[in-house]
Amino acid sequence: MTVGTSSAAGTRGAGRQPRRSPDPPPGPCELGLDPDDLPDGLVVADEHGYVVCFNAAAQRITDLPAAAALGRHLDQALPLEDLEGRRWWQLTDPYGGLATRVRQPERNLLLPGGREVLVTARYVRTEPAGPLRRLVVGLRDTEARRRTERSHAELIATVAHELRSPLTSVKGFTATLLAKWERFTDDQKRLMLETVDADADRVTRLIAELLDISRIDSGRLEVRRQPVDIGAAVGRHIQAYVASGQPADRFLLRIEQPLPALWADPDKIDQVLSNLIENAVRHGEGTVTIDITSAASPREGEDTGTSVIVSDEGTGISEESMNRVFTRFWRGSKRGGTGLGLYIVKGIVEAHGGTITVGRAPGGGAEFRFTLPVGAPAYLA
Questions:
Q1: pLDDT of the residue at 123
Q2: Quick one: how far is CA 30 from the chain centroid?
Q3: Averaged over 320-345, what is the pLDDT?
Q4: Which of 9, 90, 121, 148 has the largest count of CB atoms under 10 Å?
Q5: Rounded to an integer, what distance in angstroms lies between the CA atom of residue 48 and that of residue 289?
Q6: pTM for this prediction
Q7: How far apart are CA 328 and CA 339, in angstroms?
Q8: Measured between alpha carbons, how far is residue 199 from residues 172, 336, 337 in Å?
Q9: Residue 168 and residue 4: Cα distance in Å, rounded?
Q10: In the Cβ-directed half-sphere of 53, how many Cα atoms lie within 13 Å?
């Protein structure tokens, strides 16, 4: 591959190593890959330690133009230090150290000014334990990793906070019952045990959410497809709300016929419906409308899919919040809970190959629309 497009000739300065013109670059690889096409920083030094390649990502990460790096000695062009302030190239001595080394594991190092980067290196030798022919250095910005670490820390803190309340309640009621069982009436005992049961269910839901997020983030969310009657599934949720005291006329279910046969994971689709309908009931106003229609499939190679729209007549979601609705910890002005539900909903829908969007309903409230491919197995095609 092409490893350098320009050379830089420098002058010998006091106390500094001279620049030299880079060696002629090797011919392009079979893929014709240009180093500037790489997403990570790439720095290559020749057998004498002079930089012969400094790609665009390396320029961005180090804030150093390629012209200022090419032809300079590696420890001048890339003056890295470890977290204890020691000069990295002097510490590792790639050209004079052990000749058996073939790589340098990734580690955090510092650029001038204290900027942190992730650095790995590959020692290219003409023969095992032979002299170093090239030193290939990879650079990666730490910002993405820092964001991930912050997100994980926020998740742990949020779940720990949410778990503390029900567990405190469970501990308090059980301790009281054990210590003073004879002093309470049967009705008082029943009320305490019902509270403990509800709090135990809350803990179970939180743990299930945590497991779902772990599977979504790692790409291990399993989808067990089977035929799903999505109209009947929505009907069951509506009946449950009516049985718990919601007026029946608050819900409007409209199903367009015919619907394509839908193959999906019924438990996970039930989880999506539960979250979206609960949001509309708790945080919306007026009639909660659920429309189920056929739609263009979001998956290439399929003609039709199934679309579900859940809308209400409340104040809706502000425009500035629309792009954050499906992120972790998003809560609207009246939202409670962990703020993880819609993040999980999006992960489940996408695991099915579907799409989900949020917008404003005709009645002024929030409108969530998710579309699923039919997902039929190959033997039915």
A1: 94
A2: 34
A3: 75
A4: 121
A5: 72
A6: 0.61
A7: 6
A8: 12, 16, 13
A9: 63
A10: 25
- Three-state secondary-structure class, residue 219: coil
| Rg of the chain over all Cα atoms, to the nearest angstrom | 30
DSSP letter, residue 17: P
Query: Strand runs (DSSP E) across the chain, as ranges?
Result: 41-45, 51-54, 103-110, 116-125, 132-141, 226-228, 251-255, 262-264, 288-296, 304-311, 355-360, 366-373
**Inter-helix orientation angle 341-351/266-283, to 10°:** 150
- DSSP state letter for 237: H
β-bridge mates for residue 357, sequence order: 369
Contact 208/215 with Cβ under 8 angstroms? no
Could you tell me if 166 and 338 are in contact, meaning their C-beta atoms sit under 8 angstroms apart? Answer: no
Inter-residue contact 226 to 375 (CB < 8 Å): no
64 CB-side CA count, 13 A: 22
Q: How many CA atoms lie within 13 A of 20 on its CB side?
A: 14
Share of the chain above pLDDT 70, in %: 87
Q: How many CB atoms lie within 10 A of CB 360?
A: 15
Asked whether the beta carbons of 299 and 381 are under 8 A apart, the reply is no
* Alpha-helix residue ranges (DSSP H) falling in 182-256: 186-218, 230-243
Summarised one tens digit per residue, pLDDT across range 149-185 is: 777 777 777 777 778 888 888 999 999 999 999 999 9
Query: Measuring CA to CA, how many Å separate 253 from each of 256, 271, 287, 363?
Result: 10, 18, 10, 15
Is omega for the bond preceding 39 within 30 degrees of 0, making it cis? no
Rounded distance between C-alpha atoms, residue 272 and residue 255, angstroms: 18
Picking from 307, 290, 278, the residue whose alpha carbon sits closest to that of residue 373 is: 307
